[in-house]
């Protein structure tokens, strides 16, 4: 997953142009969440994205698929330009 990606252009020294980014790569076991686990994951996702948890109607978690990565190992990288 990459985030914060942006292209940086150096008009004076083109070879210094490139992308600034942050990324994470992980491996492990992916599982599909169901029931109350799926609802909690949906609420956490919305809170992370928007800062609030909207009043989801009953059964809203049945209209999306929420996954959980049980991570065995990961690596991170950042490129600042």
Largest sheet: 3 strands, antiparallel
Strand runs, count: 3
Put simply, the count of helices is: 1
Globally, the shape reads: elongated
In whole angstroms, the N-to-C terminal distance is 19 Å
CATH superfamily name?
A: Electron Transport, Fmn-binding Protein, Chain A
Helix % is 10-25%
What's the CATH topology name?
Pnp Oxidase, Chain A
Strand order of the largest sheet: 1-2-3
CATH arch. level architecture: Roll
H/E element string?
EEHE
| Beta fraction | over 45%
Mean pLDDT, nearest integer?
Answer: 86
**Poorly predicted spans:** none
Overall radius of gyration? 18 Å
Could you name the CATH class? Mainly Beta
- Tell me the number of structural domains: 1
Query: Helix- and strand-based class?
Result: alpha+beta
Explained architecture:
With 81 residues, the chain is of the alpha+beta class. The chain has a single domain (2-79), classed as Pnp Oxidase, Chain A, CATH 2.30.110. 20% of the residues lie in helices and 46% in strands. It is built from 1 helix and 3 strands. The chain has one helix spanning 35-50; strands spanning 2-8, 18-33, 66-79. A 3-stranded antiparallel beta sheet has the order 1-2-3. The chain starts with a strand and ends with a strand.
């Amino acid at each position: 997953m990459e985030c914060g990606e942006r292209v940086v252009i150096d008009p004076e020294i083109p070879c210094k142009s490139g992308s600034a980014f942050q990324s994470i790569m992980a491996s492990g076991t992916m599982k599909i969440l169901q029931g109350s686990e799926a609802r909690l994951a949906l609420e956490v996702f919305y809170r992370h994205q928007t800062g609030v948890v909207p009043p989801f109607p009953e059964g809203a978690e049945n209209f999306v698929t929420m996954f959980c990565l049980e991570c065995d190992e990961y690596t991170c990288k950042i490129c600042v330009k």
